[in-house]
Each structure stands twice: as C-alpha cells, then as structure tokens.
Amino acid sequence: MTRAFLFAAAILITAGCSSTGTIHPQKKNIIETAYASGKIMADSEYTVYALNPGTVIKKLVKEGDVVKKGDVLYLINSTAQAAKLDAATLSYQTALQNLSPDSRILRDLKLTMQNAAIKFSNDSLQYTRLKNLWEQNVGTKSALDNALVMYRTSLNDKRSASEKYYSTINDLNIALKNAQSQVATAQNDLNNYIIRAESTGTVYQMLKEKGEAVRANEALALLGKSSDRLIRLSIDQQDIDRVKAGQEVLLKTDATGDKIFQAKIIRLYPTMNEADQTFRADAVFSGSDSQPYIHTSVEANIIIRRKQQVLVIPSKVLLSGDSVKVKQDGHVKTIAIKTGIRTLDEAEVLSGLDEASEVVVPTAK
C-alpha cells in the first residue's frame, strides 16, 4: 500500500526545476517508507468479563486507580449461589461428622460388630464343648446339631457385621469426597460473582455502575499496565516483506495533531487479517516519546531504509518502463534508466542520468 502522512513533505525534498520545462537530477537524502495505520493500546491490555448474570451490588474502584492482581473490582449479586454454597458446606460438615470418632452411624455398627463377635465366641465354645462330649458318648445328637447351627449362624452374623462396618466407612469416605467437591464447585461458582483484576496495572474504564444488570460474558472493565504503551499497527500485505523488527517508526495521532512521535517495531505477526488483507505489527515509543491516551488512532511511516546524497529525480518525470525524456544536442529523446528507492514524490536514479542531464517534465494533460 503506497500512502504517506500529511507530514511526509517534512522528510522529502523536491528536485529543482527550471522555467524551460526541464529539471536536473540532484543529489540529496532519500527515505523509503511503508505506511501503516493503527491505534495506541495500554501494554498487556485486557478486558474483564462477567461469567454469570446478575446485578452490580458494589463498584470498588474507578477509572485511573492502580490495582494489584486479585484486587476486587465489582461484586455481583449472588444470593442463590451463596445459598448453594451454604447447603454444600452443611453436607460436607455432616459427611465429616459421620466419619468422626463420635459418629453415631459408625458407633452403632461397631457395637453390632462387637456383639456379633461375642456371640460367635460363645457359640463356638458351646459347639466345641458339645462336640468333645459327643466324642466321649456323652450328650445327644440333636443338642450337638443345634450348637453347630448356632455356631454357623453366629459366624455369618460376625462376618456380615464386619463387612457392613467397613463398607459403611468406605461409603462415608466417598460421600465426604463428593461433599468436598461440591463445596469447591460452589465456592468457585460464587467466586465468579466477585470480579477481580487479573494483573497489576491501571483501571482505564469501568463499564458498569452499582445497580446495573449484568449479562453473562458481558464486558465489565478495561485494564492494562500503568505507563507502558503499545502501538498496534496494520501493514498492507504488499509491504510486510519490507518490515523488520527494530525499524524506526514515525507516527502521529488524532489526539495530538501534527506532533510527530518516534517509535520502534518490536514484533511482527505471521497471520494475515483476511478482512482487510493486512498484517499486525507492534511498536513501542522510543526514549521519552509517549502519550497518556489509549485507543487513539495513529498513522505511521515505517522507515525501511535511508540513503545519503544519492541522485534523485521527481516521480512525475518518470515514464512507463522506468524511462525519461531528456534533451540532448537540441533534441528530445526517451532513454531507459534504472531506479532504486521510490517515494510518492521522488525516485532514486541508479544509472542512466547524472547531475548534468536535462530531464523533460511531461506536460500536464
């Protein structure tokens, strides 16, 4: 894209013309530039969004305030979510109590398990005693059979009580973990109603006031670094190959009139914006050059290269195919020349002309 600033004339010098419709090439300085447009941003600028709908109940900062990471910007109404957290917390406390030494559930199960163990021990002793007597031909077969049934029943009851006790402990541990997860989820959801700064910097814009409704994913505030500025430039795809990090930039803003600022390219982005066929480049102000405003539009000339004291002619004398008309021995003829840097107003002559050449200025039609 070939464009220039209103201040381009300050860096370009026209070649001298004679009153006879001819000019002589002159040696002078020439600058090759690439045009860019864009806006000034706060460095590390970011927008804070609402994650849930609600109503602003408190606005804790104002534009221009410096905040630290984690500082609260807004409080959003969250009565329902607070109730969910209370319910989840109560469930967690109950689950914790059920696993404590004073747990009524475990105490009853443990007592049942102990009673089953005592009964099994008694039935085991009775069965063993009757079995020994039977082997000595003392007692009855029916008494021994009844003792065996009681022994086996109490053994099963003992095993069942033990399994139920330890299974309940396992179930209660799972319930406790679920309750912990529900508390964490409810707390995280509640935190979404507390709008915080993501990093240290300045508040540039607060978009909501106390009492205003907020939608999910609605922008609430604009923040960024306090003093650092980033110049976000858009460069035409035809010029991007000539632009490199470290190149000097001359720019002016809508907010500061004709004042020219100096900057430097620090970063190029490889992906083209298909909407306007431009590439993004970032620049920063050089030295003490800066300005306090953000989101102001800028126009910029990126200095591609400079040449000192080279042969230059006005662009208007160039014909198609890099040729010019010259006067030689009283005749006008067309000759081919080789050009280098070109601006809107001038062209560098690499060969084909010298300072003595008399170049014809085409008549305006």
UniProtKB/TrEMBL annotation:
Domain CzcB-like barrel-sandwich hybrid: 48-220
Domain of life: Bacteria
Key word Coiled coil present: yes
Coiled-coil intervals, chain numbering: 169-196
Subcellular localization(s) per the UniProt record: Cell envelope
Keyword terms, alphabetized: Coiled coil
GO CC term, one of those recorded: cell envelope
Main location: other
Pfam families: BSH_CzcB
Protein name, per record: HlyD family efflux transporter periplasmic adaptor subunit
Species the sequence originates in: Mucilaginibacter ginsenosidivorans
